[in-house]
Amino acid sequence: MGKIGLFFGSNTGNTEAVAYQIAEKFNQLESGLVDVHNIGGSTPEQILSYSHIILGIPTWNTGELQDDWAFFLPKMESMNFSGKKVALFGLGDQNGYGFNFLDALGILADEVLIQGGTVFGFWSAQRYQFEESLAAKEEGGEALMGLGIDQEGQANLTDDRIETWVKQVKAEFGL
Q1: CATH number at residue 95
Q2: How many domains does the structure of the chain reveal?
Q3: Distances in whole angstroms, Cα of residue 99 to Cα of each of 4, 70, 134, 151
């Protein structure tokens, strides 16, 4: 079993592809570091068996959760994330959905915090253009509560963003 459990939901395959890119970058730094799981087939017990957790979610439609996460979120209400280090990444389209960019990431991060977890991997919002986001940290919206990936408008930045974020999270996790 790896030290990090990465759980993702994906309807179109984009979030799944990014999840595996993230796992590959971690595993290049340390072999076998990350185990990847589709949230659609996961249990709360599986997630909580890890002390270091990465959650990946796309924002679907107009600020909605991806299908598997929408089904799983009520289960999180009874999960105790105390002592867990959690990092998040989300996919969104800042050009087409600038009024709810990465909202699903923010919803998921908020639930982790409500359930006692600590969120790591905050990411600068400077290179994105959006009007509103539930993922933007309260302090002026200068940081996102996780890595933001825009495969529609900024796919050329994805690899560099992932590589930088993975190194950041590994250090923040103390691994």
Answers
A1: 3.40.50.360
A2: 1
A3: 32, 20, 10, 17
Residue 148 domain boundaries: 4-173
pLDDT values of the chain reduced to their tens digit, one per residue, 175 residues:
889 999 999 999 999 999 999 999 999 999 999 999 999 999 999 999 999 999 999 988 777 899 999 999 999 999 999 999 999 999 998 877 777 889 999 999 999 999 999 999 999 988 888 888 889 986 666 899 999 999 888 999 999 999 999 999 999 999 9
Does this model's pTM top 0.85? My answer is yes
Cα–Cα distance between 137 and 85 in angstroms, integer?
Answer: 18
User: For 13, phi and psi rounded to 5 degrees?
Assistant: 100, -15
